[in-house]
């Protein structure tokens, strides 16, 4: 796959001396959805702002489709759409004009059919003649998305596009993102809803304290870091885990009726067969068993904690 965004040793020290990015390097592939995860203040918005030319870096370089974001700013910027984290809209402007104007800013010809399609996709068509200040918070966020899409960007940055929006817009947004991906648009998304990354990302990057901790295929990451739990419901309660089972990493539920067995999927064997045999040898009858997999959220929390240690 071709690289579309290339970031080399990018650093940012804000006025006052705060180091928000520490030599960040990352390659983003054409057509992928990359989710950038990190706690508040990790440097996500700083990185996006630099790539979009809103903030200048203090070190390093970056290119978008080969165009340097500083020396070839115009070419680089023309390929980028940005949905910013903060809502910044003209309160007295009408929805449709705001979106049309955004397209014009990029030097593109007026295209009413495209704008209608985008506004309909975002359920804003009925509100097209409303003034921005008459919209709800979630609707304003939809306008930001419409503005970012209206000049047909090849790289789209979504900085927490679904913060504070309802479930429906979140689903709409995922659908739009899927459609854009099908058209070959590259999407970089930040979110605090980890299940959002789990649902739509191809790759996940974790950033904390201005440093990238890892960038990995989501599926591989979940396989590598994910642990599974086998939950065993016992027919009759026990007061303690039998001594013969002490070799297993078992947790007994408070009611004495459930045993949880944690295992990881990396090893050669899971140990489940042996465990079940051992249980039967102990004379314990089972009522039910089920397995659960740790979520991306659990993996993320573990990674960020580890980084802080
Ligand atoms: N203009 C600025 N001047 C000084 N410090 C700043 C400025 N903008 C951001 N910072 C600091 O840089 C760090 C990274 O901020 P940034 O906005 O990039 O974080 P973030 O990962 O986007 O966080 P969030 O999840 O809260 O949006 C924070 O400590 C923040 O206080
Ligand atoms: Mg941010």
UniProtKB/TrEMBL annotation:
The gene designation is: drrA_1
> What SUPFAM superfamilies does the entry give?
P-loop containing nucleoside triphosphate hydrolases (SSF52540)
Q: Name one GO molecular function term.
A: ATP binding
Q: Mind telling me which CDD domains this protein's record contains?
A: ABC_subfamily_A (cd03263)
Name of protein:
Daunorubicin/doxorubicin resistance ATP-binding protein DrrA
UniProt keywords, alphabetically = ATP-binding, Hydrolase, Nucleotide-binding, Transport
The keyword Cell inner membrane is assigned to this record? no
State the organism of origin.
Answer: Roseovarius litorisediminis
PANTHER family reported for this sequence: ABC TRANSPORTER ATP-BINDING PROTEIN
Superkingdom, taxonomy of origin: Bacteria
Which residue range or ranges hold the ABC transporter domain? 5-234
- The UniProt record lists the EC number as 3.6.3.-
């Amino acid at each position: 796959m071709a690289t579309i965004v290339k970031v080399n040793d990018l650093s940012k020290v804000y006025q006052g001396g705060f180091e928000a990015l520490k030599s960040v390097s990352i390659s983003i592939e054409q057509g992928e959805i990359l989710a950038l995860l990190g706690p508040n203040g990790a440097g996500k918005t700083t990185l996006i702002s630099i790539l979009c030319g809103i903030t200048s870096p203090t070190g390093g370089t970056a290119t978008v489709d080969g165009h340097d974001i500083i020396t070839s700013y115009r070419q680089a910027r023309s390929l980028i759409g940005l949905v910013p984290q903060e809502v910044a809209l003209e309160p007295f402007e009408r929805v449709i004009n705001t979106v049309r104007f955004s397209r014009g800013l990029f030097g593109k010809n007026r295209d009413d059919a495209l704008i209608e399609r985008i506004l309909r996709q975002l359920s804003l068509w009925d509100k097209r003649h409303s003034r921005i200040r008459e919209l709800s918070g979630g609707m304003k966020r939809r306008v930001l998305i419409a503005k970012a899409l209206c000049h047909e960007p090849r790289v789209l940055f979504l900085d927490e596009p679904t913060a504070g929006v309802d479930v429906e817009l979140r689903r709409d947004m995922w659908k739009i993102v899927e459609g854009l991906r099908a058209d070959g648009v590259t999407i970089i998304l930040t979110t605090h809803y980890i299940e959002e990354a789990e649902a739509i990302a191809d790759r996940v990057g974790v950033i904390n304290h201005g440093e990238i901790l890892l960038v990995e295929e989501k599926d591989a990451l979940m396989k590598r870091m994910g642990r599974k739990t086998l939950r065993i419901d016992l027919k009759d309660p026990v007061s303690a885990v039998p001594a013969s089972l002490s070799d297993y990493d078992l947790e007994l539920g408070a009611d004495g009726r459930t045993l949880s067995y944690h295992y990881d999927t990396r090893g050669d064997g899971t140990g489940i067969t042996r465990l079940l045999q051992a249980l039967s040898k102990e004379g314990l009858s089972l009522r039910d068993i089920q397995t659960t997999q740790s979520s991306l959220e659990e993996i993320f929390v573990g990674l960020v904690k580890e980084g802080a240690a």
